[in-house]
Amino acid sequence: MNTRQRLVLIGNGMAGVRLLEELLKRAPQTFDITVIGAEPRGSYNRILLSPVLAGEKTVDDIITHPPEWYVSQGVHLLSGERVTHIDRAARRLKTAAGLDIEYDRLVLATGSLPFVPPIEGRDRPGVICFRDVDDVQAMLEAARVHRRAVVIGGGVLGLEAACALRLRGMEVTVVHRAAWLMERQLDPQAALLLQRSLEDRGIDFRLNADTAAIEGTERVRALRFADGDRLETDLVVMSVGITPNAALAREAGLNCERGVVVDDTLLTSDPTIHALGECVQHRGICYGLVAPLYEQAVVLAQQLLGTDLGVRYDGSLLATKLKVTGIDVFSAGRHDGGELCEDIIYRDTRHGIYRRLVVENGRLVGGVLYGNTADSAWYLDLIQQSAPLGALREHLVFGRELAEAA
Asked: Which architecture, in CATH terms, is 328-405?
């Protein structure tokens, strides 16, 4: 007789699979596990989609957990399937294919959806979001037959898409509403250095640009801006952010705000349902980076297994790297500082190096690195430790080797 609890995981992305790994590593016989994934494949490394688009990797290269892995681990995988309803009272799920699945414990890892601004013409053929393998394949097909591309959004993913499409031979323009690129991660000085490097690669930019409409009949043909100017294009890639995919949780009556609200144990408002990853909202914050998702997975595994009920998820320090070959950019913590903070700035114009470190009360609280990010892990560790810098302070901006030697 099978006495194992039935654990159902909705979502087969990076957060959900990391949870699976933690559970199987710690106690592989505790749960009878079913995984339901909307995409018709195993799990893959989503942050490597940009190298696939650029031609530096293939889809097979970024598959981390093929269907055979689930079989070898005794996990039942339902790929290409979508949950349509959660009956919390009966602890049952219904899927689009008509399956009826019971659970004892349920984990939501439904991820996020690309945010599409309400621009006229956003539904025209040739307008693509950049979120999954299918999006990459659609862009590759467009690059084979078309010449001009516009990327709306000058954040990390938008810039990675722009560089990849340029490598595919397209003429690329990045359209961004803010005054500088990656405005949430970089200061204006670092952003300007980044923009110049990308311009050297043949990418054009329109900053402070407000898109009013996407024009075309059978296919997108141009962008029209709020000032009346037009930019002709054959492809529009939307990359203006993400929004938590909380629709299923909301329909089930769980407490949701921007995302599925969870406490420090990753528990939702239902005592049998946990959630993690980009779909959740923890202490008012929704995370869209991989590191916080992995940290959540470690905590949730211990909570589900009951091995350490005292462990808690306290939130994550945000750190960002741009994944473009030959361009090194890193940002972490409170890089924008504040009136009580001190900025320590280092510039090496000849070698294209820029560092801005933010210190508060003798502690490193944030930083931006451009051109040389070799010490990014060390700076991140100092931010996380939040320990007094002491003698390190005087030479901190010159990097770990010089600072520690001094």
From this structure: 2-Layer Sandwich (3.30)
